[in-house]
Each structure stands twice: as C-alpha cells, then as structure tokens.
Write the structure tokens for this entry.
Amino acid sequence: KDFDEGEASNALISSLGEVRPGLATARIDLATEAVWTAVAAPDGTVYAGTVGDGAILAVSGGKKRVLTTLGADSPWIGALALAEGGTLYAGTIGTATIHAIDTRTGKATKLLTLDGPEHIWSLAFDSTQKRLFAGTGPNGQLFEIDLAKKTAREIWASEETHLLAVTRATDGALWLGTSDEAILYRYDPATAQARAIADFAGSEVKAVVEVDGAFVGAVNEFEAKPTPPPSSPSTKGPKGTAAKPPEAGAVPGAEKPKHDGGLPARPGERKGKGALFRVDTTGRVEQLHALAEGYFQSLAVAKDGSVYAAAAAQGRVYQLRPDRTVLTAVDVPERQVNVVMTLPTGLVFATGDGGAVYVGSGPAKEAHYTSKVFDAQFPARWGNLRWRGDP
C-alpha cells in the first residue's frame, strides 16, 4: 500500500512489498479525446472506438489510421466485437445502432437500430450461430442479432437499468454484469433462462472474464447511485491537469436527458471504489483485490491465467496472478485506462482522457519509482540514507 501511493514508471509494485523492473510500453497517440472501447485482431491490430466523433481507429506497427467514421448521429462508440473473417461490429451510445465494418476497406454499413434501447454497452459474438448478443440500456434488455437476416429480438429483460457486460463462456452461456444494482447473471441461450449468480454491494458489474472454469468480475461502488449511465469517460487530462470540458450537445442527450436513463454531458472524474471478485459456477464469491480510490473499467486474461484489470482515476493496470499476488503492472500519465487486452505479443491497453493505445514491448531496460512526499510538518534535520539491493 505504501509503495502504491507513489508513481512508478516501467516498474512493478507487488502485494508482497516488492518494487522491481516491469514492462516497457510504446505509446501511440490517437489525437482524440477518449477511447471508450477497443478489440484486438489475431494479427495484433487494435481497433479503437472513440467518444465524440464516431471514429474507429486501427493501430498496427506503432501507427494509427482512421478505419471509418460513423458520423454525427453516432458519435459515441459504446462496444466493439470482431467476427471471423475480419468484420467488425460497432454498437453506439445514444442511438443504439449496430454497424458492420469491413476491416480491410473501412466500409461501414448500418446493420440495424434496436427498437427501445438507447445505448449499446456490450457486444458478444457467437461464431457457432453467426449471431451477436447486445447488452443495452436504459431498460436492461438483452438482444440477439441475426447477422444473416439483419434482425434483432429481445431475448431477456432484466429488472436492471443497464447491461454493461456480456461475456460468452466456453459452454455457450452468457455472463451478464448489470447496473444499478450490481448483479451478476448467467443466461443460457438454449433454455432462454437467466439466474442471478451473485448480488454485490455496489453500483455496477462493469466487466466479466472467464478464468479456469470460474469468472472474475469488476464491481464498482460510487458515492451515489448514478442517474447518468455508469462509468462515463472523464473529462480530465493527465494526472494533475484538467482538460477542457466537452461542449453541450457533443454527446447524445447532453442538453436534455430523455429520462433518468438518458445521457447527460459526461461528468468529470467520478468518485468511487472498485473491487475484483472471483465467482464460481455455484455462486461462491471470493474477493481478490480492492481499490479504496478509483474504479475498474475492463478485464483481460493472459495465457498464464493472470487477470489484468484497467482502472480509472489513477491510470493504472493491475495484474492478478493465479497465486493471488497482485501487482501494479502499469502506471501511465493519463487518468483513465478504459480498455485492457492481452495478445500473444503482450499487454495492450487504451486510455480515456487523452486517447492513446499502449503496446507492451517486453521487459523494461530502465525503471523508475518516485515515492509519495514525506512531510515532516516542521523544520527537521535528516539522518543518513541507506539502501540495499541485489545486482
């Protein structure tokens, strides 16, 4: 905890009380206000959905390009899903529209607009049935989209406001994270039945990943139950600075929310705390890590079974190893890390207040750690400084 209060650059801080060289990263500036969602292709290309301009960017080989721009009617990309064959599906916030994008040409085709929802928070692709599942708000509906027929049908209506996370498990079931009551559900498409697995003391279940037959969920609790949609991007710039707030109307519904589930202007930094829980299929819950300040935005699983968690408010990515050791793996200048992904080549993540993609580039050759300021509170004469270490 003491080490974690400082600032680390290319250094790992572990729950065992260690500080040691960590991961080197390469930053690709996307010259956009925020990246809200992103997916990675098998070849390492990262597709990033932005906030405010409806652009989807492709990042590869340390360079970026605009893949497509959906236009002023779809400025906030809420969710992305990559299908086999190179088709990218994008769901929007404010308009609840799904677009299909050819990743080779960048051509975007409007697939459909959902009837009823306003926001698409999450998408999951089912390659066996060639269909999409969409988690929506503000009425907590789950939709199935037939990609061949370009039709959608509601398959489950929860009593929640938003379905923030939709994760397809290896057995074909869908694990759903909700807001505003932070309930984790399991939905079986074969029987069209859903059951609550865990009810957390929080505001939302923001992300869910499958790990060795169990599931890890990111649960956030905010100071007050949010009227606007949860986990909105921050308008703050790098730590310690403030960015220019978005203009009214820059985001759908910014001037006049349609109702309690509408989308007002994005707020500044939200005050809250997050925790990571392991949940098995029987509903047994184990807390793995908790933040006293800040909340979690995204989860990803590495080949060795480690779970990476992207955190907002302090611009960090945490690593939870299978032995339950927790590490602050990455600490960047941006205040929010909104998306984290793992590739065969390493860790990739995207930031939200100053849009950028970071690509892990192997072990760090140099690492720096700056402790928090220790204030004696009065004039003092300090003694000798000693340190020890191994070569």
